Amino acid sequence: MTTTTRPAITIESTVQAPVAKVWEYWNQPEHIKQWAFASEDWHAPKSENDLRIGGTFSTTMAAKDGSFSFDFGGEYTDVKEHKLIEYTLGDGRKVSILFSTMGDSTKVVQTFEAEEENPLEMQRDGWQAILNNFTKYTETH
């Protein structure tokens, strides 16, 4: 039996908002649909989230021109309010998000196991772009 160890990629952002707002905007479907995409020619038309251990989530990410879409989802393995979210994606990869209060701002550190289809730099850049969208949306709404 062969075990494949996937490299872990870590991205981060400091959001100029208190952790309660950051947590709400990260987890509420009406907010997720406003930021869960990597570029302006994409959008997230559908999002469902059952934030609890054993709960599942799914967000549809789609090109605005209708040429491509996919569902990003998984199952929660750990949830500590305002501090930690861990989940397993549908393909078995693990993801961890840490939320740290820094005065009036919140540091978000997300670590995910890389997939094998795309270069690591492309994956890091894509996930960072989504996190940057989250930061911008949260700070301006």
Q: Which percent range describes the beta-strand content? A: 35-45%
Major beta sheet, specifics? 7 strands, antiparallel
Q: Which superfamily, in CATH terms, is the homologous superfamily?
A: START domain
What structural class do the secondary elements suggest? alpha+beta
The CATH class assignment is Alpha Beta
| DSSP E strands, number | 7
C-alpha Rg (nearest Å): 15 Å
As for the number of domains, it is 1
In spatial order, strands of the major sheet run: 1-7-6-5-4-3-2
Query: In DSSP terms, counting alpha (H) and pi (I) runs of 4 or more, how many helices?
Result: 3
Spans where pLDDT lies below 50 across 5 or more residues: none
Order of helical and strand elements: EHHEEEEEEH
User: If you average the pLDDT, what whole number results?
Assistant: 96
Helix content: 25-40%
Distance between the termini: 50 Å
Shape designation: globular
